[in-house]
Amino acid sequence: MYISNEELEKIKEYVDNLYWDQDRMSRDGRYFLNKLDNYIKKLEKEKENNIYVITNNAVVDDEIDYSIYGVATDINEAKKIFNQAVKDAKTDSDFDNLNAIEENSPNFKNNDGEWIYSESDDSFELWCNGEYNSNNYSIQIKKYELDKEKELSDEYEL
Question: Which tens digits make up the pLDDT trace of 16-64?
Fold first, then answer.
């Protein structure tokens, strides 16, 4: 599980309040230790152990280019990055010059050589009909599940 900086600061605050000095736990130490334990359990319950990678894949005249557009641990942030990537692709002058037709539009005729695009909540595909393996472009959100181990900053050990 990855923790945001805000969440890590809250945990640090609890830990800082545990000790009166280097060797003795304060009177309130047990209270803060329980508070810390409850907060970590809350984080574990609320957090998913997923990472979202927004990829950009292009094949132009059989030349392949694959890159990562962004990475996020929150699906909403991943969708923002994805939507911006799709917007950037659609406002690119090359996209306008292709006169691409949406796959589900009434104008779609499935003619070879025609540029077609389709999109969903997590995928944008553009391809030249009849030449998909030679000419296509895609942006996707890929979800990966992380190990169950907790990832905390090395700066602060609990």
Answer: 666 555 555 655 666 767 777 777 777 666 666 788 999 999 888 888 8
**Sheet architecture: strand order including 63-72:** 63-72, 50-60, 136-145, 123-128, 115-119, 101-102
Tell me which residue of 86, 50, 54 sits closest to 67, measured CA to CA: 54
CB crowding 110-139: b at 16 or more within 10 Å, else e: eeeebbbbebeebebbbbbbeeeeebbbbb
d(CA 1, CA 122) in angstroms, rounded, equals 23
Q: What is the pLDDT of residues 4-20, one digit of tens each?
A: 778 777 777 767 666 55
